[in-house]
Specification:
The complex is a heterodimer. Chain A is mainly alpha-helical. Chain A is built from 4 helices and no strands. The longest helix of chain A has 76 residues. Chain A is elongated and about 110 Å long. Chain A starts with 5 loop residues before the first helix and ends with a helix. By secondary structure, chain B is α/β, with parallel strands linked by helices. The two termini of chain B are 19 Å apart. In chain B, the strands form 2 sheets. Chain B has an 8-stranded mixed β-sheet, with helices on both faces. In chain B, strands 11-10-9-12-13-14 form a 6-stranded parallel β-sheet, sandwiched between helices. In chain B, helix 4 packs parallel to helix 5, helix 9 crosses helix 13 and helix 11 packs across helix 14. The chains are: A mainly alpha, B alpha/beta. At the A-B interface, helix 1, helix 2 and helix 3 of A face helix 2, helix 3, helix 4, helix 5 and helix 6 of B.
């Protein structure tokens, strides 16, 4: 009996694993990707789509990384120092958050603009290609027709 | 003692790369503890071309048996390119198609089908290649994924997340990397954070300075000069710093890469790739080691700097390196040109601070990431993966 192509065997194994994961609910939905509005397509280089997707993923994670405070190692006064540091930290965060919110709002708008620009230019680009293809086909038909006419005359 | 296998695209003493170095070092440590380790790999050396360079066959490298299998040629087709372009918005089916149209080593799969049962556990490192996607599916019940996960597009793909969730176990290099996997919705019941072991080294700053004819104080970056490592941001922040502060501070860039010819500044010093010892010498003499990368699953070079008593400057946008800095109290963070300048000012102007941060980092690196500590954690994880149901 012929041996199965090992690449096909591996593909089958990966598909089987996918079905097990899906049927047992072992995998929850990727929360970042679920909200990603990055357009895909093949009109531009893969790098463009990769970076655009990265921008959308980064956007969906804004605010996830809260900094953690390292506990003081000073004996006795450590607790007081920690509370003081926490209060100062909170005060600083208050001001930083105000600025960050404005910056985030702008980032969100910029990424959405990028998504729109890529999606729109991609659409226009494909429309132009289709129009050019139709024009080339019409010209080819015309050339064939003229060649036939010339052949008849000669 | 266990019979273990590592599956990875590249293996050998001449192969540079975080995942490869991590795997090789751990394999050799496990051999020293009496385990039998086989590396099942391909004949390539370079991910850009995937060309077979090393001969197929078997050799023994520092006690590790290495078996190499060729990549099947002609795999890169217009379909591969089209699927890559569509990947950011690809359906789940298209994501699996994308995996199928990448480079494959059929002999490696054949080996796993025939001999997979002979190993107690089989490690797949890193996650992002068919060696892991397809290889682990063939031996899923004994597959441990050692993903070296970064927050990048490929980490979000269904095949990646399914592999992490369904394998026998998952081995993470850091807590932040584990958190990322959970954020992706991929949680495995048998996960362990082991970390990466660091060798105790010494560096001779004078030797590096003499070799480079460098008398000025310097910051150092050690790694590939690529956009993916965010080196361009470091250079931009450094240039802004020099514009406002002046002074004689230099930025030494070791390594090489696509950005080598794209970045220039009179205060940049390019060394190219350095020998391992010369790299230690270079780091030892630095004001601080800069790690601007946003995509690290561990960052060995940070630990190397701390072992040498040198503080680090890391990008605040990277959860892994920031976690190290917070836990080790061995450096400062930056997020933009302003915070970079502030951190550099603090370090340049205060030798006491540099010494304190470097010493604290060294203490942390030795306590958490000595080979003794890391291999102990690894052996505990091996027992759990083998015996826990």
């Amino acid at each position: 009996m012929d041996e199965m192509d090992p690449v096909e065997a591996a593909r089958n194994a990966a598909v089987a694993r996918r079905h097990v994961v899906e049927s047992t609910g072992a995998l929850s939905e990727d929360p970042f990707r679920a909200g990603s509005g990055a357009p895909g397509g093949g009109a531009y280089s893969p790098r463009l789509y990769f970076h655009l997707s990265g921008a959308n993923l980064s956007l969906s994670q804004i605010g996830r990384n809260e900094t953690t405070q390292v506990p003081s190692t000073v004996p006795l006064l450590g607790g007081v120092i920690d509370r003081l540091k926490a209060a100062v930290h909170e005060l600083a965060l208050n001001y930083v958050r105000r600025l960050a919110e404005r910056q985030m709002s702008m980032n969100v708008s910029l990424v959405r603009v990028l998504n729109e620009v890529v999606a729109q230019t991609q659409h226009d680009h494909q429309g132009q290609i289709r129009a050019l293809e139709a024009r080339v086909q019409a010209l080819e038909a015309r050339v064939t027709e003229l060649e036939a006419t010339l052949a008849r005359r000669s | 003692m266990m019979r273990l296998a590592l599956v990875l695209p590249r293996y050998g003493p001449k192969i540079l790369g975080g995942a490869e170095t991590t795997a090789r070092d751990m394999a050799e440590q496990l051999v020293r503890r009496g385990h039998t380790v086989t590396a099942l790999t391909t004949c390539i050396r370079d991910y850009a071309t995937w060309q077979n360079v090393d001969p197929a066959g078997t050799e023994v490298v520092n006690g590790v048996t290495v078996e190499r299998f060729p990549i099947r040629p002609g795999w890169r087709t217009p379909t591969t390119e089209a699927l890559s372009g569509r990947l950011p918005s690809a359906t789940t089916d298209e994501q699996y198609d994308w995996v199928h149209h990448q480079a494959h080593a059929p002999g490696l799969y054949r080996k796993l089908i025939a001999d997979g049962q002979r190993y107690d556990l089989i490690f797949f490192i890193p996650y992002l290649y068919t060696t892991a996607y397809y290889g682990s599916a063939l031996v899923n019940e004994r597959a441990v994924i050692w993903p070296c996960l970064h927050n990048e597009l490929f980490a979000h793909l269904h095949p990646t997340r399914a592999m992490l969730a369904a394998a026998r176990g998952v081995l993470f290099n850091s807590r932040a990397e584990q958190d990322l996997a959970h954020q992706l919705g991929a949680q495995n019941p048998r996960e362990f954070v082991v970390g990466v072991g660091i060798d105790e080294r010494v560096g001779d700053a004078h030797r590096f300075r003499s070799a480079q004819r460098l008398a000025e104080p310097y910051l150092i970056y050690a790694g590939r000069l690529e956009e993916a490592k965010n080196v361009h941001a470091l250079v931009e922040y450094f240039s802004a710093y020099k514009q406002t502060r002046g002074g004689d501070l230099k930025l030494v860039l070791t390594g090489d890469g696509a950005l080598r010819n794209a970045i220039s500044h009179p205060d940049l010093v390019f060394t190219g790739y350095l020998s391992d010892q010369m790299l230690q010498d270079a780091i030892a003499g630095a004001v601080a080691l800069c790690q601007p990368s946003l995509m690290e699953s561990f960052s060995i070079v940070i630990m190397q700097a701390w072992i040498l008593g040198v503080p680090v400057l890391v990008h605040a946008g990277c959860a892994v390196t920031t976690e190290h800095v917070q836990a080790g109290q061995g450096g400062l963070t930056f997020a933009d040109a302003t915070s970079f300048a502030r951190s550099v000012d603090a370090l340049v102007g205060d030798q006491g601070l540099r010494a304190r941060l470097g010493a604290q980092g060294g203490q942390y690196a030795r306590a958490e990431y000595s080979w003794q500590a890391v291999t102990d954690r690894m052996e505990a994880a091996l027992e759990a993966w083998k015996h826990d149901d």
